[in-house]
Amino acid sequence: SGFIQSQFIDPLFYNSLTLGYQRIFDSNLVGFSYQYNQHIISPYIGYIYNEDRNSISSDDKDALFYYDQSAFLGFTAPLFVWRRWQGAWDSNIAYEKRDRLNNQYSESIELTHQAQITYLQNYPLAYEPYRLFRFSIQQQNISSNSDIEKDDTIVLGSLTASGDLGWQNYLRLKYTEGVGQEENIQLRYLPSSLSKNLIQTERLFPEDTVDIKRIRSIIGTYKRPFETPYYFPRFPLSVRRSAIYIEGAYYDLETTARIDDHFTDWQYGIEIEGLAIHQIPLRMRVGGQSTTENQQSGFFLQINSQKNF
Asked: Taking the complete model, does pTM exceed 0.70, yes or no?
């Protein structure tokens, strides 16, 4: 699996364009978003396309294909800034269409609101924030015109805490819970510019989201960076620091359709911080991943460019 994302920002930081591609197991996803940041209220637009192959047996002819498309329009606005605390608001409306090879499809309009409060203590050139606490709550209203997907109201909340335990040993913990009025939770790729990535790198929700009314997840990440500077005079990619990392996630589902109501994901490898063409900051992850949901495992590659340049 892999992930590639690039972000382009003009020198005055008024315009921001984000492009992304992600592959996790049998899912391919591509998307973009554009945001205008000159004023307090920052509007944005975007589009996400996802192609998912879900095998129900070892025979390829029994595989199901899903094609999801989502176009969204929204805005972000600051709520307050006090010392190291800051609050932000995000609202967007999205049109989503889901297609299957058996000619079944669903269309829905989704209205999402998100409020986020963050405490951040960071220092220049630090690999990760020294202290970070974040609370986020999100509500999504789904209006569908198909029998495949019901109208629903979903609430998603998360708590994140991360920091330096000493000598650059970084630990991050995140708890997330989602609740839906109907047994039809469809929280897959929520288009919120408050998210660190346009495309979510952490799999908040399982591949099969049918008949799920409540889901909980706990994600823990450990990183230990090392100074490994190496700057190539001609090659357009240089290395500044490297880190070993391991990430584990536990998911607990409230459902009547699934036999296994809980599973775990693991990801491990090396994270490299570098520069492309000596100007664009990059974070690259190389390693392996596995899940007990359907006993899959494989190679993981992630390339991400998110800082201003």
From this structure: yes
Assigned token pair, 230: 């190496």
**How would you label 7-41 residue by residue, b for 16+ Cβ within 10 Å and e otherwise?**
bebeeeeeebebbbebbbbbbebbbbbebebeeee
CA distance 256 to 47: 33
Residue 309: which pLDDT band, with cuts at 50, 70 and 90? very low
Chain segment 112-130, per-residue pLDDT in tens: 899 999 999 998 888 999 9
Contact (CB, 8 A) for 169 and 222 = yes
Token duo for residue 214: 């409540």
Query: What is the DSSP pairing of strand 237-255 with strand 212-230?
Result: antiparallel
Give the other-Cβ count within 10 Å of 260's Cβ.
11
Grouping H, G, I as helix, E, B as strand and the rest as coil, residue 204 is: coil
The tokens describing 241, both together, are 């620091």
Structure tokens at 207: 């591949």
